[in-house]
Amino acid sequence: xxxxxxxxxxxxxxxxxxxxxxxxxxxxxxxxxxxxxxxxxxxxxxxxxxxxxxxxxxxxxxxxxxxxxxxxxxxxxxxxxxxxxxxxxxxxxxxxxxxxxxxxxxxxxxxxxxxxxxxxxxxxxxxxxxxxxxxxxxxxxxxxxxxxxxxxxxxxxxxxxxxxxxxxxxxxxxxxxxxxxxxxxxxxxxxxxxxxxxxxxxxxxxxxxxxxxxxxxxxxxxxxxxxxxxxxxxxxxxxxxxxxxxxxxxxxxxxxxxxxxxxxxxxxxxxxxxxxxxxxxxxxxxxxxxxxxxxxxxxxxxxxxxxxxxxxxxxxxxxxxxxxxxxxxxxxxx
Length: 334
Ligand SMILES: *Cc1c(COP(=O)(O)O)cnc(C)c1O
Hints:
This protein is of the alpha/beta class and 334 residues long. It has helices at residues 2-8, 26-32, 53-66, 81-93, 111-118, 128-148, 166-183, 198-209, 225-242, 270-283, 292-305; strands at 22-24, 36-41, 71-77, 96-102, 122-126, 153-155, 189-194, 215-220, 255-257, 313-318. The strands form two sheets. The chain has a six-stranded mixed beta sheet, with helices on both faces. Strands 5-4-3-6 form a four-stranded parallel beta sheet, with helices on both faces. The protein binds pyridoxal-5'-phosphate. Pyridoxal-5'-phosphate binds at residues 51-53, 81-82, 159, 161, 193-200, 288, 291-292, 319-321.
């Protein structure tokens, strides 16, 4: 399996700081009194590139550059980590960046949006209603405008979650396998926050391909379980067909927990903010209210309810998101 995977690994740009550490969270583990909790520190994939998106973008941008693109177009929420990572990587690679964002981009810019502007991305923000209704058309008209001025656009879908982006976390599973071997653990579960599905898709396939017996669980931060079951399996089908892989996609278990979405995307309950502060004080890790804080809060609840009874070791993928803390600073209860 591993040899077959190596043969098929597509070209990749070296953009992320890899490998990232796998760290035990001793105090949180003890407090919970259940499985040992570990954090895979993908918040350390870069300083301003921090998070999971750069792992996917190593493959996505390699493809874009190979196709001769000079302008990257992508989309997301106003505080999208994916858009921020893309904007900075475009600057690093000498590419233009066009961002289509959902929300009202009022000054002074904060968090990821500030970094988008610092990186020189061309930002067009539209109301959430328009974004929801017209995203494909907005991306298409942006691409046409780029072509009209003689540029070569390449459109990256939300979160870089598609057949190409799946490679990011398929490849990361080789790292996780080595991490686990070094620590002498065989984790029962690998947990991530799921927003566009590409991370969970890559982990799900990558764990099997790299001989990790862990179950992969995603905590949904926006859409429900049925949506992600569909989206993730479709991304995996596209991936396996696009690269002629022989993995049986239909036999993979896609496990999504959608009980901790709270008020909606990028909106969290007060308990999530409390959890973020608690984790920061207890282990020195900073989670965010959009993704990691929500997912970790869900994980703690599920451990307490017994879902992971009998599991010795759980790996929580810290997918970054620190810049999302700042725009929601007034939600913390100190
Ligand atoms: C995008 C993102 C996720 C979710 O990853 P997907 O592949 O989009 O499901 C999780 N955490 C953070 C911090 C993110 O930016």
